[in-house]
Amino acid sequence: MTPSQLQTVSEAADDIRRLISQSDLPGASAVLTPLSVPEIVELVDRLGIEDAAIVYRLLAKSRAIDVFEALSPGTRGELVRALRNVEITALFAEMDPDDRVWLLDELPASVAPQLLRGLTRRERELTAGMLGYPQDSIGRRMSPEFVTAHPHLTVAETLTRVRAALDSAETVYTLPVTDSGRRVVGVVSLRDLMSASDDDLVSELMRDAHIADVMEDAEAAARRTTDYGLLAMPVVDSEQRLVGILTIDDAARILKQEESEDAARQGGVEPLRRSYLSTPIRRLVRSRVVWLLVLAVGATLTVQVLDAFEATLAQLTVLALFVPLLIGTGGNTGNQAATTVTRSLALGEVTPRDVMRVLSREVRVGFCLGLLLGTLGFVLAGLIYEWHIGLVIGLTLVAVCTVAASIGGIMPLAARAIKVDPAVFSNPFITTFVDATGLIIYFLIAKAVLGI
């Protein structure tokens, strides 16, 4: 969205709040009329949930569905809680099965049976089938509504099938080609079908298919879809039978949510389920306080190290001046390594089996960084203070950077190995651990070099 559009939405949000406070709903409706669907989505994200629910009720039905489908899963969940039961049921029935599952994942489990009862039998079976797959699997994010082609069909026959399924299929731009047992044997694009002769067979046009197993991790499947530039990827069960498709827009939505969660946890907060401006203060506090408490407890390690080396500091107080520099450098080095490896994990460039290769590389990278910074620290500290102080600082920087890079590199891999989000064990925990380790290294080197 352009800056001018954001400015328009910001002004509209201010007008909407004022008009709702004055109970001027016709005026609020007039403000909404010229706005596009993306602008209304941004507007809803900027309003409190009570005002957002009022805005949503002012929209025409067709426009309301478009807006609802464009909202983030978290915002959808809160909006549903603010709407009346009859509104929720009607809205739920209009959604695609994969969008229903996204929504149900944001709502209390007790709400699901009530919403599912309002669906037709076919829609209820499609949605309930997806709910049976694990939370993070692609089976829970695929679309079970698709149109297929068969190798022995002609182009004309296939296009007839496509036209008949236009209203129900998730996409028709890429068609899975299946045999008589519903096993995927290839894919064919709508472009190829439309450019071929009516009598050509699908078997002459189809190409090999990239497929995803229904139990595969959703992020991994989404990543492959975007990496290969696919409009849609067939999803199959353990017997290679087609059960759904993953479209490029759903893949992008999965990756956006996963990357938002990783970015939040790397910063030591829980991810917000809706936009920052519309998130209540109590929820912002709740998303941060647990991590702060955990990290505060972890920081007591640093206090204990300082207490253990109190006599060393008392003998040469100049050592205390370099504590912030050393632990800050160590924490930053560890965070850089963790961020790099976490990103490589997400892209599938490394796996937990590569732990020794990663460790070997990060030891060398950390040593080189430490050598560069240590040389600079030795010269500056030696010129300002004494050369033996410079030697302590230089050696400590070499050791701290090497250790920090090594720890930062292997912790995301260890987290993935025990099936924990690598971002959870990323920057905040690494910083806390490296602070304590770096101080121990610092004081041990100081005692050895200075003889105190």
UniProtKB/TrEMBL annotation:
Where, subcellularly, is it found?
Cell membrane; Membrane
Q: CBS domain: which residues?
A: 142-204, 205-261
TM spans, by residue?
A: 289-306, 312-329, 363-385, 391-413, 425-445
Please give the CDD domains that the UniProt record associates with this protein.
CBS_pair_Mg_transporter
Per the record's keyword annotation, is Transferase included, yes or no?
no
- Keywords per UniProt: CBS domain, Cell membrane, Magnesium, Membrane, Metal-binding, Transmembrane, Transmembrane helix, Transport
Name the domain of life.
Bacteria
Q: State the oligomer form and interacting partners.
A: Homodimer.
Protein name (database record) = Magnesium transporter MgtE
Q: Which organism is it from?
A: Microbacterium suwonense
Tell me the classification of the organism that encodes this protein: Bacteria, Bacillati, Actinomycetota, Actinomycetes, Micrococcales
